[in-house]
Design a protein that fits this description.
The structure is a single chain. 43% of the residues are buried. Helix content is 26%, strand content 25%. The longest helix has 17 residues, at 330-346. Strand 15 (258-263), helix 6 (271-283) and strand 16 (288-292) form a beta-alpha-beta unit. It has helices spanning 6-17, 26-36, 148-153, 181-196, 221-228, 271-283, 299-302, 330-346, 349-355, and strands spanning 42-45, 51-55, 64-70, 75-81, 86-92, 104-108, 114-119, 141-142, 161-164, 169-170, 175-178, 205-211, 232-235, 238-240, 258-263, 288-292, 311-318, 326-329. With 358 residues, the chain is α+β, with helices and mostly antiparallel strands. Strands 1, 2, 3, 12, 13, 14, 15, 16 and 17 form a nine-stranded mixed β-sheet that branches. Strands 4-5-8-7-6-9 form a six-stranded antiparallel beta barrel. It has a three-stranded antiparallel β-sheet with strand order 10-11-18. This is M42 family metallopeptidase. Zn(2+) 2 binds at residues 182, 215, 322. Its cofactor is a divalent metal cation. Belongs to the peptidase M42 family.
């Protein structure tokens, strides 16, 4: 039976149901700040909004290890209000246009009011047979308003943000459906890492937290690296699984373990870091799978910052990410958490120096 506690499920639910798109991550930031407090010596942040809890080593001049999630999720921003009471919107992050018609979305106003609505689609009765795919810029969100004035009376304005309206649901013992597992996974695993090592003396200063604006081009990572100046970085992020018709190559499969991400479009895992990770997962018998990603992570910015930072992505995969719903396997989460805990307890100055090429 999968050993995952109710507290972890509760945290998953809270984190995935937050409303926090790129540039508007306040809900996630405040949750992390409050939840990390019992486990860290201090909490720091940069001017863009990224936040990190710091657990100091008792050793002087200890190296700094960064565990970096990102707190933003894909979503949309209101760009136009029509006289009929409909809302036009633009994407925040990479989304496909073919998955949003008839989906329920949640709008958040600048004064923290929430409204649910549906993305309009043409009923079969009115279709002519000439319709083709609808571009996102042509879609309309219907929140029930009768006209533009009612939208204004509801407190809705251009620039308000939109996310999928999806509640977490445990489908089976090991599989969960939720939105925003990319990348509330990273927020959760970072928080539970801090909890796991709170009473353990480490050989490193541990910085655990989350960046902003990853989904719109890895924008927050550079600021946090300049703030912390880490010696080693572990990026915790969720990647797409492509296993609905079986395990295809290195594309990720649910239940097959933590991802050993050897290559993506923003970073190549170094030979030394690869061997270090493999040694740990094999020694500790942690379920793992090699992974090649068509996307990227904050590691793409972090690994080339300063004079170069040894970096690895400790990830999990999920089906249907960057849509209104994702499905993931809690066993993969537990494998990733175990690997992070093992690395943080194992790593020291000498091993970090070995991972560098100087």
């Amino acid at each position: 039976m999968t050993q995952i506690g109710q507290e972890t499920i509760n945290r998953m639910r809270t984190l995935t149901e937050l409303h926090a798109v790129p540039g508007f991550e306040g809900e996630a930031r405040e949750y992390l700040k409050e939840q990390m407090k019992p486990f860290v010596d201090e909490i720091i942040g940069d001017n863009m909004g990224s936040i990190y809890g710091v657990k100091k080593s008792k050793k002087e001049n200890a190296p700094k290890v960064l565990v970096a999630a990102h707190m933003d999720e894909i979503g949309f921003m209101v760009t136009e209000m029509t006289k009929e009471g409909m809302l036009k919107f633009t994407p925040l992050g990479g989304v496909s246009s073919d998955v949003w018609l008839s989906q329920t979305l949640q709008l958040k106003t600048r004064d923290n009011q929430y409204y649910n609505g549906v993305v309009g689609s043409i009923p079969k009765h009115f279709r002519t047979g000439k319709e083709s795919g609808v571009a996102i810029e042509d879609m309309l969100l219907d929140v029930g308003a009768e006209n533009m004035q009612q939208l204004k009376d509801m407190g809705i304005n251009i620039g308000d943000t939109i996310v999928p309206r999806t509640n977490l649901e445990q489908l089976t013992e090991n599989r969960i459906l939720a939105k925003a597992w990319d990348n509330r996974y990273g927020c959760l695993v970072g928080l539970e890492l801090l909890e796991a090592v709170k009473d353990i003396d480490l050989d490193v200063d541990l910085y655990v937290g989350a960046n902003v604006q990853e989904e719109v081009g890895l924008r927050g990572a550079s600021a946090s690296v300049n703030l912390i100046e880490p010696d080693l970085a572990l990026v915790v992020d969720c990647s797409p699984a492509n296993d609905m018709k079986g395990h295809i190559g290195l594309s990720g499969a649910l239940g097959e373990g933590v991802l050993i991400r050897i290559l993506d479009r923003t970073m190549i895992l170094s030979e030394r870091m690869r061997d270090y990770l493999i040694n740990i997962v094999e020694e500790k018998d942690i379920n793992h799978q090699y992974f090649q990603s068509p996307g990227g992570t904050d590691g793409g910015e972090i690994h080339k910052a300063l004079t170069g930072i040894p970096t690895a992505v400790i990830g999990v995969c999920a089906r249907y990410i960057h849509t209104s719903k994702a499905i993931y396997d809690v066993r993969d989460y537990l494998n990733a958490k175990q690997l992070l805990v093992e690395i943080v307890q194992d790593i020291n100055k000498e091993k970090i120096e070995h991972l560098k090429y100087n």
